[in-house]
Amino acid sequence: MFSSRKITVVGIGYVGLSNAIALARNNPVIAYDIDVEKVLLVNEKKSPLNELDIVKEETESIKEELEEEIKDASRIEKLKENITSLEKKIEKFHPAKILDTNFRTEVTKSEKKSN
């Protein structure tokens, strides 16, 4: 059942077309756009919106983010290996006991023997 109001939508991009379709359920709607191809497609009851581009862009974005996270994880592992290697070298020269994760150390000094 249509109301007596006529609704005009200017622009049939993602937002305009979605609104026009929703409003057309209960109202007569006229939609305008400067892109003749879009208007012809809508008049043929075909979507002028290219959903595949959106999916492709999102997929690429997710792929790039995952690649960065993998690189970060790899860098962290290398950093851990370097820290472990450095700790072993330091232990040879300066015996120390790590007190907490802030890497504060308590150095054990060797006592000098006096003659």
Write up what this structure looks like.
- It is rod-shaped and about 90 Å long.
- Strand 1 (7-10), helix 1 (14-23) and strand 2 (29-32) form a beta-alpha-beta unit.
- It has two domains: 7-43, no CATH class; 51-107.
- The protein has three helices and four strands.
- The strands form two sheets. The chain has a two-stranded parallel sheet. It has a two-stranded antiparallel ribbon with strand order 3-4.
- The protein is 53% helix and 12% strand.
- It has 115 residues and is of the alpha+beta class.
Summarize this entry quickly.
The chain folds into 2 domains: 37 residues, no CATH class; 57 residues. Helix content is 53%, strand content 12%.
Supply the key terms:
single chain; 115 residues; alpha+beta; 2 domains; two-stranded parallel sheet; two-stranded antiparallel ribbon; 3 helices; 4 strands; 12% strand
